Amino acid sequence: MITTAPVSGSGDVRFTDDDFRALAQLAHAEFGLALAESKKPLVYSRIARRLRARKINDFSSYMALLKSPEEAEERLELISALTTNVTSFFREKHHFDTLQKDLIPQLEKQQRVRIWSAGCSSGQEAFSIAMTLTDALSEASLRNARILATDIDPAMIRKASAARYALEDLATIPAKMQQSATRPCAEEPASFEITAPVQRMVSFGALNLMEPWPFKGPFDAIFCRNVAIYFDHQTQHRLWSRFTALLREGGFLFIGHSERVAGPALDSLQSAGVTTYRKAVAPAPTTPDRRQE
User: Fold this and answer.
1) Is 114 a catalytic residue?
2) What is the pTM of this model?
3) Active site residue 46
4) Domain boundaries, the chain
5) 100-134, pLDDT tens digit by residue?
6) What percentage of the chain has pLDDT greater than the value 70?
7) Which residues contact 9 (CB under 8 A, 6 or more apart)?
């Protein structure tokens, strides 16, 4: 099947089934994305924008561009075009309820607190975690509490690092936290900013989850929500196992509302609520009974 549509001022671009498969193979190899054949019209409409932006009139030339070592940025533009960045503060509130009710009492006993927001998009998830910790943890526990926030898209990381959001985004932040963790933005009256103490808790960085991770954990919790929906089952199973390996015993994994953990990771994870999993605590070793009969 061949799809055609105007891409620039010089005519239509052909997008065949073979073209789609070539793009799908590249997206899977580079980013772990699984593109079903049924997604071809949607993929085409999104890729056509990139061809227009780069003033390219045929798909084969765009594929050659993507494979060039100098075009790492365009490959990231591709992943941004193929995925959707939809997020909000305190999205899926039950996860933050679990964080506050079940995890924070344990964190209060620790000298070190580490949480990872994997696939952080424009930062609302990471700052929601930071607000929750700031609101609930003692000052002593907060001194060594850090949140790592990563996303594959550098544009999202730049936006998250700016910590500036539209006023309508305030609606999902609890009133108490609005007062303590946000402030008006003098330069942009239609925006607000996250306060400096909350910002300092979060470190943002670009990361492709398919590549080696430059950290070892352990993490007390990992949020990876609505990311694995783009992966095939094998890639998901591998990702769940890698996350589990970085969780401390008793740590939580929070995933998206349409995702489920499956595969080898379930040997170590236990369901702990809606789209919430907890790493099992190994039983304490028993002391041999050396009493003589």
Assistant:
1) no
2) 0.87
3) yes
4) 2-82, 93-279
5) 999 999 999 999 999 999 999 999 999 999 999 99
6) 92
7) none
Active-site pick, 46, 91, 164, 248:
46
CATH code: domain 93-279 is 3.40.50.150
Percent of the chain at pLDDT > 90 equals: 74
Task: Report d(CA 277, CA 222) in Å as an integer.
Answer: 10
Q: Is 92 left (phi over 0), alpha (psi -120 to 50) or beta?
A: left
Catalytic residue among 50, 75, 114, 151: 151
Note the CATH number of domain 2-82.
1.10.155.10
